[in-house]
Specification:
The complex is a heterodimer of chains A (136) and B (111). Helices cover 52% and strands 19% of the residues of chain A. Chain A has 136 residues and is an alpha/beta fold. Chain A has two domains: 99 residues, Rossmann fold (3-Layer(aba) Sandwich); 35 residues, no CATH class. The mean pLDDT of chain A is 93. With 111 residues, chain B is of the alpha+beta class. In chain B, 47% of the residues are buried. The C terminus of chain B is likely disordered. The chains are: A alpha/beta (136), B alpha+beta (111).
């Protein structure tokens, strides 16, 4: 199916947002060629950040020029410092820091979209800021 | 703008991708959110109810065709323009956002 995904991303006149397979192992060079920006989501603990760092390497190998990290489930200033320190050391640009948010868990339990469950949730606000940055 | 979101299971990749798609549509963008995960659940985070999402069982074979790529390997590609494909197989979420589910175990085009 890899040719189909690439064809959709390349051929659509719309903004495309692809929720990829967890690893990047299945992403073909042909599809990657059409991806302008890849966001790698990582959590603020070492193992997750290591995994994110590997995804950065894979993405670069696939030729994706703009790869940025979204730090998710950030609970404290200390969490944020952990992410920023790791990212700085590995030269991984950070696109957004999304706070840990009970609304995410609650929406999930209810089977509801987060943005409908709590449109002003702190996690949604962080994603709104990212969207605004991307659109300017 | 062509964006993709990757991340380990449980990291929140799908919540972020789906919410970003909704926010972009709110901001006036026409958006297609594509679920390429083999365990697709982007539907939930963009706000398509699970009953509707359960109807996505794959893409008819006649929408796809096999072509040789540059290395001579055969691969499945779209047999119709991307926009037509999205209109036909996507699920509308409000006025500007469309969800398209690619992955999943029942995918008609896999193999």
């Amino acid at each position: 199916m890899r040719g189909v995904l690439g064809g959709l991303v390349a051929g659509s006149s719309r903004m495309t947002i692809v929720d990829l397979e967890a690893g990047l192992e299945h992403l073909s060079r042909g599809t990657a060629r059409h991806v302008e920006t890849l966001f790698v989501v990582g959590e603020p603990y070492f193992k997750s950040l290591e995994t994110a760092s590997r995804s950065f390497s894979l993405a670069k190998d696939l030729g994706i020029a703009n790869v940025r990290m979204i730090a998710n489930k950030v609970r404290s200033a200390r969490d944020e410092a952990t992410v920023r320190e790791f990212a700085g050391r590995h030269n991984l640009p950070i696109a957004a820091v999304v706070p840990y948010d009970d609304a995410v868990v609650a929406a999930d339990e209810r089977g509801t979209a987060l943005i409908e469950y709590q449109p002003a949730a702190p996690s949604v606000a962080a994603i709104r800021r990212l969207a605004d940055e991307l659109l300017t | 703008m062509k964006l993709a979101v990757a991340g380990k299971g449980g990291a929140g990749k799908t919540t972020i991708a789906g919410t970003l798609a909704r926010v972009m549509a709110e901001r006036g963008q026409r958006v297609v959110a594509i679920d390429d995960d083999s365990n697709p659940n982007l539907a939930l985070t963009v706000g398509v109810d699970t009953a509707a999402a359960a109807k996505f069982t794959g893409i008819p074979r006649d929408m796809l065709e096999e072509r040789a790529d540059a290395e001579g390997n055969m691969r499945l590609e779209l047999a119709v323009p991307a926009e037509e494909f999205i209109d036909r197989f996507g699920v509308a979420v409000g006025d500007r956002l469309t969800l398209l589910v690619m992955g999943g175990p029942n995918h008609g085009g896999s193999g």
